[in-house]
């Protein structure tokens, strides 16, 4: 109180000003002591795109030990009551695919934006994409369309992942850089040139620990390391139905290498799948040629899982010794399964790898429109495509009923239905 004693009307303005400055300093100090996440969500200058918000706004349950989340992540979670986050494995992947819209489009759906915004919630070691990140493969598109599409992809997908510090592994799809051949070489050389220019720009580094990147971004290898073990990834150019002979030769050398064989798990990523699963895509040209031979090659080197896109339908399958993850889509054009009329879904899959578990991988797949976890039993027990029988990953061949086996045999023959 002595501060005020003896004050005259001449000194009061000075002292009032000093008191105001002291008050401002205390207020700023209290604000600086707030948790970072609280500052971020309360900042009036932070602009969150309206497409990220989910109605109604109900705070989701986030584990108390989770790190501070980016503003856009929290904006999505605020509208989701109790979004499930499965138990984490030794290594965690988030798998997405087929992000594009109509030919030449630089637009991305709200499901793409929300999926990317939610990546920090799952805290993966790596995000994988099964291809079709942009919407090329059309001869009438002007040259300037391709850098514009890659710039839009960067804005919606790659740049946020770089900011989150999450590595991004990808395979190029037919709409990104088709390897279809014409009389003078690649029919879609413009797309391939644009893709190479984008991905070879150091500013667009995906943050991977590369092995062989001589043919990057078309075919390459990398490793994800953890305290419990390593996962070796091989990406081949499956942007068309033919894996080129030189690519197959390289793939076999890479899979037989010490880096691949010393890893605890091996995963191969390509856009086109081995076997058909979706109506309208279950035909030659929409799957990889010589599927059984390719599967034998992968099995020879103990590849655990082949991850693909293109068929626009999520399906967790197995054939022989190989797991097959059809990663679905987040963009437009969802498709219906062969012999079924289940509605198409836009999906994202969290893959948890546990090296000591017999199954090695656990899938948690989200319907990104309903924000619900898909139950495996809601999917077809098996699918009979034009080039092979696939079983849902939890179904064994001997568990098929006589009627189910008859459907396969009548379509493909007994031998093709025995594997």
Automatic annotation (TrEMBL):
Keywords: Hydrolase, Signal. InterPro entries: Calcineurin-like_PHP (IPR004843), Metallo-depent_PP-like (IPR029052), Metallophosphoesterase_PAP (IPR051558). Residues 42-69 are annotated as: Disordered. It holds the Pfam family Metallophos. GO terms for molecular function: hydrolase activity. Residues 92-314 form the Calcineurin-like phosphoesterase domain. The keyword Lyase does not apply. This is Metallophosphoesterase.
């Amino acid at each position: 109180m002595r501060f005020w004693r003896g004050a005259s009307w001449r000194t009061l303005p000075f002292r009032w000003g000093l008191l105001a400055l002291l008050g401002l300093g205390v207020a700023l100090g209290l604000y600086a002591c707030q948790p970072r996440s609280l500052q971020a969500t309360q900042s009036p200058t932070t602009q969150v795109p309206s497409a990220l918000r989910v109605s109604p706004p109900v705070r989701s349950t986030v584990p108390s030990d989770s790190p501070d989340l980016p503003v856009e992540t929290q904006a999505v979670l605020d509208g989701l009551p109790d979004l499930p986050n499965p138990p984490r494995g030794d290594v965690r992947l988030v798998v997405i695919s087929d992000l594009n819209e109509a030919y030449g489009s630089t637009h991305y759906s709200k499901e793409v934006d929300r999926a990317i915004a939610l990546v920090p919630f799952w805290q993966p070691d790596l995000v994988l994409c099964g291809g079709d990140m942009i919407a090329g493969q059309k001869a009438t598109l002007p040259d300037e369309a391709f850098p514009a599409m890659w710039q839009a992809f960067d804005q919606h997908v790659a740049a946020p992942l770089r900011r989150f510090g999450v590595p991004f592994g990808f395979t190029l799809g037919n709409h990104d850089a088709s390897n279809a051949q014409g009389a003078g070489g690649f029919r879609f050389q413009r797309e391939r040139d644009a893709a190479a220019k984008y991905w070879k720009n150091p500013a667009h580094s995906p943050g991977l620990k590369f092995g062989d990147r001589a043919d990057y971004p078309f075919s390459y290898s990398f490793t994800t390391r953890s305290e419990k073990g390593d996962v070796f990834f091989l990406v081949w150019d499956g942007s068309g139905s033919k894996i080129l002979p030189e690519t197959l030769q390289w793939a076999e050398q890479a899979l037989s290498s010490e880096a691949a064989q010393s890893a605890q798990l091996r995963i191969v990523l390509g856009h086109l799948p081995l076997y058909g699963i979706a109506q309208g895509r279950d035909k030659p040209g929409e799957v990889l040629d010589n599927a059984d031979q390719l599967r034998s090659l992968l099995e020879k080197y103990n590849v655990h899982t082949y991850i693909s896109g293109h068929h626009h339908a999520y399906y967790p399958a197995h054939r022989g010794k190989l797991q097959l993850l059809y990663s679905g889509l987040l963009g437009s054009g969802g498709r219906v399964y062969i012999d079924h009329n289940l509605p198409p879904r836009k999906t994202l899959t969290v893959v948890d790898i546990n090296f000591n578990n017999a199954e090695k991988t656990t899938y948690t797949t989200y319907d990104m429109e309903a924000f619900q976890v898909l139950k495996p039993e809601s999917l077809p027990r098996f699918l009979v495509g034009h080039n092979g029988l696939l079983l849902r990953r939890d179904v064994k061949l001997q568990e098929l009923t006589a009627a189910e086996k008859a459907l396969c045999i009548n379509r493909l023959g007994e031998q093709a239905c025995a594997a």
